[in-house]
């Protein structure tokens, strides 16, 4: 009826759980009803037997007189009584027929032991199910006898059968309702899953305009929202990738055009020495620019594949920042942008890769110079507190809008395409800082300026054996750590 799948599993599991629970309840109910009826019959006969034994107990009459008096006074409808000796032989019964049979049921030993015996079973002669209740008594204070009442359970069993049939019909009706409900429940789960599966198949074929439609609840709603978000992110990533390809193509074409043009010019001959120097200077500059672009792309690829290795040493952040200020001094002079380092006379050592940390801060400071106004200042602040060293680079440039600030560290994202670049610089910077177990926080306001703060764990304070001109304090080979 159902093909293999989640719908079938839900229906079967739900149906069988309810079926087993219902079966257990009905079995307990039927046993309780049967016990109630049987106990009621036993209680009624037991009370009657106790009255009878109290009446005949201790009397000196003969068995015949006692039997006749019991028959006239203490008879029960649809119940026969018997008087047995202590061996189980039937001496007298209410039918009036002599019997030579011997009673061997379990109620007799119970009665002889002083209890009220009870036995439920089938009569050997008729095969009918009966209940026997027995209790001993004495005549003349000497002879021990057992009075035994036997009643048929046919009527009770017929009622129990009717109740059982009615309970079974109710159970079937309940299972039918449960089956219909479970099918509806399964469909409410499977249909959204089928819809989500179809949309996923379309997305796998490259149709990223497809979305999961429908207001689904709970986990299915979360799954649909996640799939739609994934599709939107794929579209955005593809757009960013296309923009990156367009941007990097332009970035590569510009220096290559300059190199090609000057190479052809120098190759033609008839040039003066000054023109040669200018051409070679431009070729060298554009070549360095190309190398920087390629290295940036390679660094990003290594970070994405977790292949970037860091050579860890004790690094002096003050000397790194001082060297970076010298590197960007010429670029800052062109825009009349001034840089100032503010730091107390403290050791600012961290455990890290000096070259990669220089790459981090060079990128941050270079961006600050690039987006600063003319005749402005950039402040580099070093602070050490609670086992961490923070470097804040603050400018008063064009700033970043709140919308772009959340995305500026995403790969390939460019807030300002006019200044060029691959859009990978801050993404690489972020990941390098994280590899050093640090944190980079950006605060910016459009038209006011930007502050980038990098916080790194401070290295344990150690006194260097001698003043080093390098920004790294290298120890023995076995103290270096490569991660």
From TrEMBL:
Keywords, ordered alphabetically: ATP-binding, Cell membrane, Kinase, Membrane, Nucleotide-binding, Phosphoprotein, Transferase, Transmembrane, Transmembrane helix, Two-component regulatory system
Domain HAMP as annotated: residue spans: 187-239
SUPFAM superfamilies associated with the record: ATPase domain of HSP90 chaperone/DNA topoisomerase II/histidine kinase, HAMP domain-like, Homodimeric domain of signal transducing histidine kinase
Topology class, membrane: Multi-pass membrane protein
Ranges where the record places region Disordered: 457-483
Protein name: histidine kinase
UniProt EC number: 2.7.13.3
CDD domains: HAMP (cd06225), HisKA (cd00082)
Source domain of life: Bacteria
Start-end of Acidic residues biased regions: 459-483
PROSITE patterns attached to this UniProt entry: HAMP (PS50885), HIS_KIN (PS50109)
Domain Histidine kinase: 247-460
Stretches that traverse the bilayer: 12-37, 160-186
Top-level EC class: transferase
Entry's Gene Ontology molecular function annotations: kinase activity
This protein's record includes keyword Metal-binding: no
InterPro entries xref list: HAMP_dom, HATPase_C_sf, HATPase_dom, His_kinase_dom, HisK_dim/P_dom, HisK_dim/P_sf, HssS/ArlS-like, Sig_transdc_His_kin-like_C
Compartmental location: Cell membrane
Reactions that this protein is recorded to catalyse: ATP + protein L-histidine = ADP + protein N-phospho-L-histidine
Organism placement in taxonomy: Bacteria, Bacillati, Bacillota, Bacilli, Bacillales
